[in-house]
Each structure stands twice: as structure tokens, then as C-alpha cells.
Amino acid sequence: MKRETWGSRAGFILAAVGSAIGLGNIWRFPYMAFENGGGAFLIPYFFALVTAGIPILILEFSLGHKMKGSAPFTFAKLNRKWEWLGWWQVFISFVIAVYYVVIVGWAISYVGYSFTLAWGDKTVAFFTGDFLGLTDSPFHLGGFRWGIVAATLFAWLVSFVVLYAGVKSGIEKANKIFMPLLIVILLIVMVRGVTLPGAADGLERLFRPDFSKMLSGRVWIAAYGQIFFSLSIAFAIMLTYASYLPEKSDIVNNAFMTGLLNCGFSILSGITVFSIIGFMTQQAGGQLPEKLSGVFLAFATIPQAINQLPTMSVLVGVLFFLSLTFAGLSSFISINEVLVSSFADKLNLPRKKVVVGYTLIAGLVSLVFTTGAGLYILDIVDHWVNNFGVVLSGLTELIFIGWICKLITLREHFEPVSDFKVGMWWELTVKFVTPFVLAVTAVQGFIQEFT
Ligand code: PHE
Ligand code: NA
To answer: Where does the signal sequence lie (predicted)?
Structure first.
């Protein structure tokens, strides 16, 4: 059977960028930068982009493009004993999919709440109490939150429709709608943000460089972590998307486009979020808001800021949560595609059947996160996946491809068809620099966890 391909180069890049740009860009990057040296964080961040992000994108794009199959299929073809690495990545993707979808569901619910600013004055209490019905421990489920169940199922429905329609008429088409909308929305919210009183102060807090932080290993690890998560690498996603590339494709060029567009978007989100934070800080007489990252930034602090806006509160609210929704959905779809393609390859089933079966099973599993204990379970799962799952997967992938397989064949695959010559840089980063950083990260993670 002939493998489906993307309709155009732009279609592939939009899909890859759609996977990359997600919740992590909007609520993780701004805080990371703020916490880890402000403007100076851009140094380790771009270093990580150039030594890990783009080289691994090139690696995963080449593998997918060359082998034309899912991750388990690709690794098995390189070496029969290594199929498990593909399944490990599939497993991580599954775990992420079943909680990521619930957060997308929250964003969808909050689009609705924005119309009436339903969260009221006490936005933290509204989020954890009225909305999540948060219980007192991960073992006390407290029953389903039906509003969240409905929104989560809606996100599954979107993914189902898109994946069922296929690569070109589903994934590509969806991203051609979501991505331009997302950019336009972000730009509108950004303009509103930077024209608020206090915005300049927020931006100064975000970008003021603190070079002393550059001496801390933690900051460098944070930069690499952000690049891995943000570019969706070591999750088999980029490999899977690249398996649908047509024969003649400039891999290196595509990797640069994806990496740079994603980082550009992150910086724009940083500007948006921190100009709004600057405004809130001014309103509070110089007091920074307490929660500046993660779900509380998005679902408590930003709603609080929206309450205080002099004009256009509803519009900004709707647009902000729509941006989370679109960013989240396109990433969510990309994770699901990893599973769909892997099981379609393994079981030799038509993809439509796999889409139905997968959506039913994963949809059911995801419901555990729609209970009152959802946020606790989510935090635990997220912690393990990001601190160990991805780091180990990335490290193993690089050891396998860089040291056990012959890297040179991969380079022979992409170099002749590229405008760029990657030279020593690519091999050096993929074989030495990034494995070293990942190994240090893993060791440090274990020490922190178990001592
Ligand atoms: N890259 C996405 C983001 O920044 C997250 C993601 C990670 C999506 C892994 C898919 C897989 O939010
Ligand atoms: Na996305």
C-alpha cells in the first residue's frame, strides 16, 4: 500500500509547528525565561535550540522520511532488538495524550466562561473549587466533573474527525485552519497586552538579563528541557509526521523552519503574558501576582487580569482561551497520530479502524483526569514523564542512532537533497553534546528524586 503524503511543504511545516506550538509555549516558556535569568535565559535557550532542538529535528525528520513508518517500525527496521524504544515513545505519548486532552478541555470550558467572566473575583477558588472540585488527595477521586467530561469528549471528537479523515485531508487541513487563526489571535491579545499601563514594567521584568544565572547548571538543564518539550522531540511525533513527507524534501530546511517558528512564537507569548502581568502588578501597587506559571497562570492569574482590564475583557478572555484551545488541539492531534500510526503498522490494520479503537480506549482512560483528583494525578504523571520519560527516551534514541547505528547513512540520506551543508555540527551535537546534557539531567533528576 502506498503511504499517504502531505499535500505540500507548507502543509508539513504547519503540522510540525502545530505540534510544537502548544500549551508549553504559552504558559511554560514565559515563566521559564522569567525564573532563569530573564533576557539572559535566551542564551542557554538558543544554545539548546542549536545543539539539541534543530539537530534532533533533523534526525527524527530523516528517520521518518527514510523509513516511512511509525517509530516502532522504524527502530525495528534499523535493528530488530530496538523496537522497544519505539514502543517506549509510544507509551510516553499515550500518557501525555490522556492528560493533555483534559487541559484542552479546561481551555474549551474557559472560552465559555469568558463570555460572562463567570470566574468572578476569586479566580483561584473558582478554578480549584467550583470548576475542578479538587479533592484532598490523588486517592480521593470525588466523582466526575461532568462539565469537564463534556469538554474533554469534545476535544476527543475533534481529534477523531481529523485523524479519521487522514493525513492530508485531516491533519494538514486542520493545521491550515488552526495555525493561522492561532497567530492572528495571539497578535491581537499581544497588542492589547503591550498597550496596557504597566506593560513596559512587565517586559522589563521578563527581559532584564541576570547573567549570574548562566553559571547555574540548573538553568541550562531547564533550557534543554524546554526545548525538548516544546519541539515535541523524543516523543516519536516528528518522526511520524516526517514519514508522510514526499520523496523530495529538504529536511534540514524544514527543521530550521520548525525550530525557529516555534521559538518565535514562544517569545511572542512571553511578551503577551508578561505585559499582562506588568499591568496586574501595577494595579496591585507593585505586587507581582503569586502564580506565574502552569495551569494556575492560565486558569487563575490571567482570568484575574481579564477582570481588571479597562475595556474588552470579554474579547480578550475569549481570544486568550481560544488560543490555548487551538494550540492544544493541534499538539494533541499530533500525539494521537503517533499511536494511530504505530498500531496501524504493527497490527497491519487500516488506519480508520485504529482511529476508532484508539479513540475509544484512550478517551476512556483520559476520564480519570476529569475527576476531582484530576489535577493531583496530572501533576504526578507530568512530573515523571517530563523528568524521566522524555530524558531517558531522548538519551537512548541518541545512543542508538548516534553510536549503534551508523549515523553516516542518515547524513547521506538528507545532505544531498538539502540546500544546507550541516557538516560536523550535526554529528557533534547528536553524538556528544546532547547525550552529555541529557545524561547529566537524568543523573541530577535521580539525585533530586531519591535523596
Ligand atoms: N510541544 C507541545 C507544547 O509545547 C507539547 C507536546 C509535547 C505536544 C509532546 C506533543 C507531545 O505544549
Ligand atoms: Na499545537
So the answer is: none
Distances (CA, A) of 225 to 29, 68, 207, 363, 446: 11, 28, 20, 28, 15
**d(C-alpha 78, C-alpha 259), whole Å:** 26
pTM assigned to the model: 0.96
Here the cell at position 354 is: 485504529
Where do the domains of the chain lie, and which CATH numbers do they carry?
Answer: 11-450 (1.20.1740)
CB under 5 Å of ion ligand 2: residues:
18, 21-22, 327, 330-331
- Strand (E) positions, 260-380? none
Record the cell numbers describing residue 337, joined without a space.
497520530
DSSP 239-282: HHHHTT--SS--HHHHHHHHHHHHHHHHHHHHHHHHHHHHHHHH
For residue 23 and ligand 1, the question of a CB distance below 6 A is answered with: yes
* ipTM given for this complex: 0.96
Helix, strand, or coil (residue 347): helix
Short-list 241, 244, 253, 238, CA closest to 418? 253
- Closest by CA to 263, choosing from 451, 94, 25, 433, is 25
Distance CA 377, CA 383 (A): 10
pLDDT (tens digit per residue) in 274-325: 999 999 999 999 999 999 988 999 999 999 999 999 999 999 999 999 999 9
* Cα pseudo-dihedral 440, 444, 446, 450, rounded to 10: 160
CA distance linking residue 104 with residue 118, whole number of Å: 18
Kindly state the greatest CA–CA separation across the chain. 65
Question: Rounded to 5 degrees, what are φ and ψ at 137?
Answer: -160, 165
Q: How many residues does the chain have?
A: 451
Q: Locate 134 and state its grid cell.
A: 479538587
* Beta strands per DSSP E along 379-421: none
Strand partners, 144: 371
Query: Is the distance from the beta carbon of residue 229 to the nearest atom of ligand 1 less than 6 Å?
Result: yes
Which of 19, 297, 330 is the best mutation target for the ligand 1 pocket, counting ligand atoms within 8 Å of the beta carbon and taking the most? Answer: 19
